[in-house]
Amino acid sequence: MKLITAIIKPSRLDPVLEALKDAGVGGLTVSEVRGFGRQKGKTEVYRGAEYEVKLLPKVKVEIVAPEAIVERAVEAIAAAAKTGKIGDGKIWVADLDSIQRIRTGETGQAAVDG
User: What is the pTM of this model?
Assistant: First the structure.
């Protein structure tokens, strides 16, 4: 089992969700997060006053997936989230040592299915 984590622009969430559905992903978690990388924030104007936004809004998508669909899911995220501009985001994949469904006590793949 793998944990796929992607940090993307909020405006690209709907296309990413559609791409993941088409790639066979059965479930995921989405969180609103804030951060910066190369983008380093931006300057905005509010009521005539300039101010600097250091942490930009992003969306974090987390997916627990069997190894068989990891590559397909990562490619789907990358294609749907890409705008070609700075701040498109990052994707990383990590191994999961264990997973358990709290309600039933199922572990491994059974905890993720259905």
Answer: 0.86
Instruction: Read off the DSSP letter of residue 100.
Output: B
Report the b/e string of 22-50 with b at 16+ CB within 10 A: ebebeebeeeeeeeeeeeeeeeeeeeeee
Both tokens assigned to 25: 């992903």
- Cα–Cα distance between 48 and 69 in angstroms, integer? 49
Sign, CA dihedral 66-21-63-88, equals positive
Report residue 43 as tokens: 């300057």
Q: Which helix (H) or strand (E) holds 67?
A: helix 67-81
Please state, in angstroms and as integers, the Cα–Cα distance from residue 67 to each residue in 27, 73, 86, 95, following that order: 15, 10, 30, 10
pLDDT digit string (tens) for the chain, length 114 residues: 999 999 999 999 999 999 999 999 989 999 999 988 877 767 777 788 877 878 889 999 999 999 999 999 999 999 999 999 988 999 999 999 999 999 999 998 888 886
